[in-house]
Specification:
The protein is α+β, with helices and mostly antiparallel strands. The protein has one domain: GMP Synthetase, Chain A, domain 3 (2-Layer Sandwich), CATH 3.30.300.130. It contains 5 helices and 3 strands, in the order H-H-E-E-H-E-H-H. The longest helix is centred in the middle third of the chain and has 13 residues, at 56-68. The protein starts with a helix and ends with a helix.
Length: 103
């Protein structure tokens, strides 16, 4: 069965299309859940930098494709939520805050 760590490692390669920074570093991924006995399913709960993101569907598909590439993952769901709203001042890594000038 795939682990949460394996899924998160796969997601390290996914970049926000507008900021060109990693979604994990940006704090856009809120949760990763791995379920199942023989049919492993992964659910990623995440947000976008903007509710009106014009590339949202393409971005969501990229996340799903990276999750499905993890050995043992049979199905994947990417749930987009805006609760809580993304706030880089509290959700982004220190490196990203420095790159964005949020200090």
């Amino acid at each position: 069965m795939p682990t949460v760590e394996q899924v998160r490692t796969a997601l390290e390669d996914v970049k926000d299309p507008e900021l060109n920074l990693g979604i994990l570093e940006l704090g856009l991924v809120y949760d990763v859940a791995v379920e199942g006995d023989t049919s492993e399913h992964v659910t990623v709960t995440m947000t976008l930098t903007s509710p009106m993101c014009p590339v949202g569907p393409m971005f969501k598909k990229s996340v799903e494709d990276h999750v499905l590439a993890v050995d043992g993952v049979k199905t994947a769901t990417v749930d987009i939520t805006f609760s809580p709203p993304w706030d880089p001042r509290t959700m982004a890594s220190d490196d990203v805050k420095a790159l964005l000038g949020i200090w």
